[in-house]
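Weekly puzzle thread! Below is a chain. First person to post its structure in token form gets bragging rights.
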Amino acid sequence: MSVFMDRRSLLYDEEIRVANLRGEVLQVDVERARINIQRSRIELERAELELRRVRLELDRNQQDFDRARTYRTYTDFTVLD
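Winning reply:
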């Protein structure tokens, strides 16, 4: 009976070790997922900053265009002596 109990005990210990290793693997997977989320957040922030930069440049170009159009309209109707 003791041989049976010893084998059963060893099997139980082995199952515990396997479960612990699986837990460690799952923990590593969770850490990887967290790192990927952080990377994605950083990429999103970069994209938002780039979008903001492009919108500011577009606004500046639109203002320049409006100013040039206003100047051109003004000079078109100015009578030169």
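Puzzle host: Confirmed. Bonus trivia for everyone else. The radius of gyration is 35 Å.
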